[in-house]
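dumping the sequnces here before i forget
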Amino acid sequence: MLLRLFAEWGKMARWTLIAAAIISYPHFAPQFWVVNIGAYAIVLGIITLSLTFLAAYGGMVSLAQMTVAGVAGYTLAILSSHAANVGSAILPWPWALAIALGSGTLAGTLIGLVSVRTKGISLLMITLAIGMIFFYLTQQNTTLFHGFDGFRGVKAPIVFGMSLREPIVFYYLCMGVGISLYAAITYMVRTPFGIALQGIRDNPRRLAAIGYWVELHQVAAFGVAGFVAAVGGVLSLWYHGGISPGSVGITAMVNILIVAVIGGLGHPRGALIGALLFVLIQNFAIDLFIRERFNTVIGLTFLVIVLFSPDGLIGLWERLSRSRKRGLRSAPNGANN
Amino acid sequence: MKLFLLATLNGVTVAGLYFIVAIGFTLIFGLMRVINLAHGSLYILGAYLGYDVAAKTGNWYLGLAAGGVSVALAGLLIQSTLLDRIQGQEMRQSLVAIGLSIVIADLLLARYGGLTYQFDPPSILFGSVALPIVKGYPTFRLVVVGAAVVVGLVIWLLVYRTRFGIIIRAGVDDRPMLGALGVNVPLVSILVFGLGAGLAGLAGVVGGSALSISPGEDARYLLSSLVVVIVGGMGSLSGTAIGALLIGLAEQIGLAYFPTYSVIVSFVIMAAVLALRPQGLMGRSE
Amino acid sequence: MDVSKITRILAVVFLVCGTVVSAAAQTSVRIGGVMTLEGPFTVLGQEAVRAMEMAFEEVNYSVAGKRIEWVKESSDGRPDVAVGKARKLIEQDKVDILIGPMSGGEGLAIKEYAKSVPGKTILNGFSAAQETTLVNPAPNFFRFGTDGAQWQAGLGSYVYDVKGYRTAAVVAGDYSFGYTQVLGFMTEFCAKGGKVKEKIWVPMGTKDFSSAIARIPDKVDAVYVMFGGADSVNFLTQYYQAGGKIPIIGGSNVTEQTVLSTKGPFQRHMIGIPSAHMVADGIEEPAYLEYVAKYKKRFPDGLAAPSAPFYGYYVATKAALKALAQVGGDLSGNQVKFREALAKLKLDTPTGPVTLDENRQAIANIFVTEVAQRPDGTLYTKVVKVMRNVNQTLGQPRDAFVARGVPSRDNPSCP
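..and the predicted 3d for all of it:
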């Protein structure tokens, strides 16, 4: 009894500490670490969260999440009045933002419509094909997408006299959005929709037999993931101040998968952890003896995780803490995480 | 008229190259249900190693052989040490292949740098040949078609006319039963993976001679192999040939008549096939 | 030991360390370099590293009594990545001056980023998109190299007058740098009365040019070809294999050292191809010969001769060093004095004098060349005409030039 209280209290204290660290982070960390590591990891984590959600709760691994983020990003760039050399419509930012998020969600839903007819590797391949189509579309079309050079000079909106892109403001924006999305996903998977989705993941035939419209649930999941990816795409556009075909190309698409796997494909928390590790390696590999072989480091990390801990880092952590708890409790307890 | 003929000829010849590149890919999938996403990096591995041998010995044919053999050995190694342990887990194997391809491509970049390498095939293979209407046409492209036909025939003979081929086909149909009959299935898998990889390496030297070798080719040929094999039907020899022809023609005719968006055509075909007939044109439904 | 004594000792230690650190900070200048050391432009990035190294070694890594600290970051040609690395150099590694980037798209992105760090100065490495300085320039972004359109100055007139070409077709990469170079060539060629019958734009990433080659009309006098290094090699090989007989006019990258150094059967056909660039292998001036000799001695593993990207980064670094020396290393007050010195700088480079215009864009010499062969068999670009002090508007009034609009698939046009 006392031991359980202690374990519980320890967990609460742990979470409070983490929360305090995340909230106070911008005030003690240097600016580069706040924005380029912290905020950017959250942005990357949000886009990855859309993939992890689909994979963990829908059983569908899609390579097109970066594409959806790109649709939202490009829509906002096209509608943004600050982007250099653009001759398209100019809208006030709340409208542009709403349209961008809407178009991203729509894109996600449409991709889902096409993709849910397949499963497993075929789903992976069809989302890859869709991603490549969008990439070439943005590269080849100059009138709307501005071709190979894309958009530059996109400025984040100014709210209450502050630019949303100002370092500390941007960090809190990303943090707030990230936490909200994660909370929303966590809540959603406990609703009847979420439970049905997981049932479909495990045994679609059985769910269909008891009257669930399987494809509708799967497409809806793609829509939800699309919204999450769209949010990530908008934040990414504001972070980079622009977007170009390279942002939605094969490298960018595969990177999301890599981040998700490193964090743990079955755990939404893994999206942020994987993103953080990825961003750290990307920035600091050159400073260590590794020099320019950053890709080798990422590839090897990825390989090691897939081979030895397919659950990613979160899976590794959970296995370690389970074996530690088993050491603490003398009698087996059944209740587990 | 001349443009159409040239575009068609170009389409058929590039299809030959795509066929040679994709045949190893489809063989590996056919038996082992492994989508070898490292196929592209095996291709450039063969190209670079073959280039080294050809440059040092001055003999292009040796380079060709070296490219094939060295990558076949690499394939044997990869299957026996890495992929065999996770046999049966499709997604995980695909992920391992992705990780491998990233590492291989980066290490090759470290070793060979960013320069473009051009093979120096013997001049009988590498000149111009006079054809009716189109006048000059690169000899090597016709050589590639010839090579594709030869490779296709050899593999067909192997799979349909030898004992090893019977084992492979049996394994495609019912792997556990094959093991129950006393065949060393892991060994067969290793050999098939090695064969598929070797074909990729061979294709690397051929492709590197037709076009050049530079970083980034691995993603390109992996994608084209994927498209060809998915359209044609994974695990099907004739499907690979049909897929290669379809994609090659679409690409070149597209480039000749509507170049701006021609690059999208192959992926649209791929997506359409996956949505409407996921097993491919010649594939068998699971 | 009591606490107050420990505290006092620690305070003294920190004070001393702090003084030493800040003193060190005052006695050194941090210069960052961002270049493409990954991806398709890796070879260019390697040249950039060599260039900065040679420039720093010439001053023994010190300027105005301060030590030079050099920090490098690698990009892969993608604008987002380049800006991320620039941010790292400026915000994390705290460089005072940044030199780079390499490619056109990266340059446009870095220029925008520069506007957000007004207290730092960025000198362009090799990126040559026209809009970077022509449209909405950044007050702290300096380009001591000429842009892609300037690089073609003199070529259009030369092929019209000397080679006698009256009609041409264009085959080029379908992106802004392709449009820029074609604009540079066509502005003069069309003005002389030349006609461009067909423009064949090839999507980026294409390796098989056979169908593009098939579209070249039979009856034109010449074909103007413009692709990046590796693609040029591929195109030329395939063109000659297809029995291509029409003479070629080369964009700057087609006859660049990185292409000429690549061994292959296409090389023997290249002799005589006219082109133009901000550098040429065949310049006879003593300053240039000395520069080439220095390169060859210092980098035996390098290319046969210093390339254009080498030149770009080298000149940028020399400019930064010269301006720093002029202001005695004073980077205070948001580097105001340093930037004034840069803007007014008259730099003597191996290819001639370079000055800046009101948008901080270089005015420099351009060389019209033809590919020739040395006795030892290597290829080089022989100078046939020198265009002196070419500015960004190619000698035309600025308003009229800008009014014609940015280069695109259809602009300019003279069928």
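Chain A touches chain B through 38 residues (CB under 8 Å).
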